[in-house]
Predict the structure.
Amino acid sequence: MAEELHPDIESIVLSEEDIHGIVSRLGEEISRDYEGKNPLCVAVLKGAVVFTADIMRAITVPMAIDFMAVSSYGEGVKSSGVVRIVKDLDTKIEGRDVLILEDILDSGLTLNYLIRNLQARNPKSVRIATFLVKDIEGKKPAVAPSYVGAHVPDAFIVGYGLDYAERYRNLPYIGVLKPEVYEK
Ligand code: IMP
Ligand code: MG
């Protein structure tokens, strides 16, 4: 499918069609593993909203949804590792099977903080489903996700919920942002 490429995008990493296939596969895996359960899916705002809207419709077991917003400070292209909860859950998670939905696992510092924070509330289980994992040579993320949509190269990518300074979240595909856009 030919997609109109945004002028700030260098190349497409995952097309809409690729994304659809990945989400269907993840939905099947999650539905199989949570058979007979009623997981609470926790979407990490804002990046995971688009993935969340898609994956929840690919999950066939009963489930509930809640949202958390964390900020790792600043609008740069690198995670600072200093995480702050901007919006907490509305739901009590004690005894629940919690599935964190995240857009991208980079250093893993954000998810490492989040998983510890949620574990302290005594859920039955906590797992991570991340749409993307960024492959960085010689570096292992601080957490191990149970579900991974796709691995992407170490470049700054946007679209499908991922932003640069709050822009590009609405692109229907995942693309590499031209470095001149953030090096200006
Ligand atoms: P981590 O703490 O380094 O794993 O960073 C995770 C968060 O940083 C993600 O939830 C994203 O919001 C953001 N992030 C990391 N890499 C990218 C990227 O390539 N594009 C857009 N956002 C990113
Ligand atoms: Mg972000």
